[in-house]
Amino acid sequence: MDPENRRPDPEALLARIREEERLAARGRLKVFFGASPGVGKTYAMLEAARARAREGVDVVVGVVETHGRPETAALLEGLPALPRRTLEYRGIALQEFDLDAALARRPGLLLVDELAHTNAPGSRHPKRWQDVEELLAAGISVYTTLNVQHLESLNDVVAQITRVTVRETLPDSVFDQADEIELADLSADDLLARLRQGKVYVPEQAAAAIERFFRKGNLIALRELTLRRAAERVDAQMRGYMREEGIRSLWPAGDRLLVCIGPNPDGARLVRAGKRMATGLKCEWRVVHVDRPGERVSPGDREALNANLQLAESLGAITAALSGERAAEAILAYAREHNVTKIVIGKPTHPRWRDKLFGSTLDQLVRGSGDVDVYAISGDVTERPRRRAAADRRSPASEYLRAGLIVAVATAVAALVHRVLSVPDLAMVYLLGVVLVASRYGRGPSLLAALISIGLFDFCFVPPAFTFAVSDVRYLLTFSVMLLVALVMSALTLRIRAQAETARARETATAALYAMSRDLAATRGQAELVAVTERHLAGTFAAQVQVLLPNEGGRVEIPVGALPAFPMDEKERSVAQWAFDHRQAAGVATDTLPAASAHYVPLEGSAGVVGVMGVRPADPRRFQDPALQHLLETFAAQAAGALERALLAERAQHDQVEAEAERLRTALLSSLSHDMRTPLGAITGAASSLLEDRGALSEAARRDLVQAILEESTRMNRLIGNLLDMIRVESGALQVQKEWQPLEEVVGVALIRLESRLKEHPVAVKLPPDLPLILMDGLLIEQVFVNLLENAVKYTPAGTPVEISAVAAEGAVVVDVADRGPGFPPGEEQRVFDKFYRIAGATSVSGVGLGLTICRGIVTAHGGRIWAENRRDGGAVFRFTLPLAGEPAAVPSEAEGS
Q: What is this structure's pTM?
């Protein structure tokens, strides 16, 4: 192979090295891809895994679904498997893949079936493909399976074909980033035969499946989608390999057509001819044009070019705008990058002398094309456009006037120094003036300056003076040099100006895009993201911008609380809705509903359309420029990504809240079923004994039974009271009736209420005599002491003391309730205040787990705070504060009252 073809670009080589470094620490992903269930994806995966195991690879089964197929289950024999993780959801025990066990095991190869599976609530990730991403990031290689209907980009197509909407999907980027794809293919007839034989589903399910999803037409269409998607993936891998290896020659694995057009109306003929060729070849086709620095294009030609590019896109082509000094080099570089096999260009119709003088693009394409075929067809008429462009490049009259003034100044300077300098040296003064004009103005002023300079130099200084006669023919060379310098310098000036304008436009667009992406990254919430998007696009495109988001019914509307950027009647809303439903731009500068007042672009994320952006430009003709439309699409993609992240964050938060609510509900029912069954059983047993007594029970026994009923009913009342208090705290309905009271009275009442329960725990109360009165709700603070003392009784051994103390410090009273129990496990000191929380190993302790949560709610309602600590010499202490605010009102004495 030609060494030049194998020499990679330095930048590409550096990017490749960085990518290899990133992938070195990452596991490899292989996807077994199929058209539908039953084609043999899992079977092929297990066969490949067993082959790797025979090679000495540590293969472990993470999760594989056999669906009752004995031949698939047989391949699992002998392969070590991770135990499933059990999750409870609405009273049902679900078996899920254990991600933590896989990360701890770290096998060489892990089998994870059904990549698009949705995990049960309570899992770390909502989707299994996210589990696989974490495994790959940890360096674990994965084999997995996937059906074509689970790809997000094909979801609508599959629903249209099968009339079945697939709910479990994954982003196409997950599939595209796979290191290897293996196709599990089976014809529709063979798959239907397997179904009827019961090798896919049980016979009852198979009959229903054949009538619905597994119709022969559906299977054929799904198979075609699968083969096309796999072919696209293989083609991307081939182009990636060619790019990495620096291979510039053509690998004609399939035809690809490239049509080259210029800024003229007749380019439409080339586009239509290219469409016919692509249809005949059944191949992908592209349409490009080259913007050459220094080449000005008239508004009419620009409009024609934009119209031709829009025509190409409407006919299914991929369009691109290239830039380069030489059109042929830019076209060939693009063709090699995209593995193009055929190039179509218009026949030149200009005079041949122009090709001899300036070079021929067609000739350069043919000579540099190598293995690429070049077709020259009718359609490129350039004389008329060039005349229009030339008319558009006329310099203003002021530039001609300034050119004349510069030449006049050069003449004056030459007149002052002509006695000192020779005549040829005076020509340099004029030449300097011509260079100055050519470097600042256009071609016309430069030529004018050169001609005037030649005339004045000849008339004033070339002998014989004051005539246009030339005595020495060598001065003719000087005149020619002055004219040539004017032409060359003016051409260079125009080119530099065009390059500067292009660079300035790109810099402006890049800066605007960076500023928007930076602000979007720092913004949270859909309303704020919409405001940032509208502000940036309005400034960049000099237009009114309105973002519309879908409601629950799928109808796009202005976000709640946002002001409309421009009036939107029912017609405008219908255009925006069409763009949202069809995922295509509509309105101004499109072929769809062009009578609308704005250009509507769908905001499409990786998982679907998240909204629509309406742009109402001051000059609607600006949006006929494909470059401007592509820039708008780039901004729209940035906004869509940000809105999608916000939407996913909201959904994740909602799912987390639902999962937490489900966990709390399960914990509550579990606690109630346990803690209410015990007193109810005791009450039932005592009451039945009393009813069945026929005089056999003594009076003391009867009294004990009645006492048991009273105690257990009191216990149930306390349990229900805690639940009601928790509801009041959570709903904000807790009413605090504050009065000035001494703390010792509240403590005393709490101790009296718990006298029977504290019999086996000596209580020491240490309250200073000078403790001030506290503004508090005595009943609620009494409940705090009751809950804290009950907690101490439950979790400490019999005979251990409980201490209650208080001290006034820094505007608050700090109260301690301490015990000599086992204390808290490290890091659990704050979690004990969570609802339904129980310390590990305390399952035998009765209670719902709400007492400490209620304490926190009551203390917080008083403006204080509560926390827990371990005591240095063993035990735990609960400490809370009550603020000291103001002074109690003075009570009038009897003398004052009389």
A: 0.46
